[in-house]
Amino acid sequence: QVQLVESGGGSVQAGVSLTLSCATSGVAFNYYCMGWFRQAPGKEREGVAVIFSDGRTKYADSVKGRFTISQDSVKNTVYLQMNSLKPEDTAMYYCAAEKYGGICGGRLPREYEFNTWGQGTQVTVSS
């Protein structure tokens, strides 16, 4: 059974950095597609970044150059390093996993393409 637990969220000032962690169990990083999504109040959940086992990554245009997704197969953890945070980055951030890793190969995958989700961690950025 795949389980995902996010941590690392918080309330910060604009311009600072924050790193989110997603502790996983039951995930085989060698063929899963792992992703980070976020959902702001009143908005739909949107993809932020994904990573495949071979290190390929994809990012939403809104975070390119500021956010970095990575994974540690020894610690079974996926990270989202967020730099130069902006108030518009405020949202609940979710970790997601999909055992059909092929979804990482094309465009940034959509919410419905992932079958396992964590409970989320809140990030609030004030100006």
Radius of gyration: 13 Å
Instruction: Give the DSSP E fraction (strand runs of 2 or more residues).
Output: over 45%
Order of helices and strands: EEEEEEEEEEE
What is the overall silhouette? globular
- Helical region count? 0
Report how far apart the termini are: 41 Å
Q: Give the tally of β-strands.
A: 11
Notes on the protein architecture:
By secondary structure, this protein is mainly beta. It is built from no helices and eleven strands. The protein has strands at 3-7, 10-13, 18-25, 33-39, 46-51, 57-59, 67-72, 77-82, 91-98, 116-117, 121-126. The strands form two sheets. Strands 2, 4, 5, 6, 9, 10 and 11 form a seven-stranded mixed β-sheet that branches. Strand 4 and strand 5 (46-51) form a beta hairpin. The protein starts with a strand and ends with a strand.
Spell out the blueprint of helices and strands.
Elements: E1 3-7, E2 10-13, E3 18-25, E4 33-39, E5 46-51, E6 57-59, E7 67-72, E8 77-82, E9 91-98, E10 116-117, E11 121-126
Parallel strand pairs: 2-11
Antiparallel strand pairs: 1-3, 3-8, 4-5, 4-9, 5-6, 7-8, 9-10, 9-11
Key descriptive features of the protein:
127 residues; mainly beta; 11 strands; 48% strand
Short description:
This protein has no helices and eleven strands. The chain has 127 residues and is an all-beta fold.
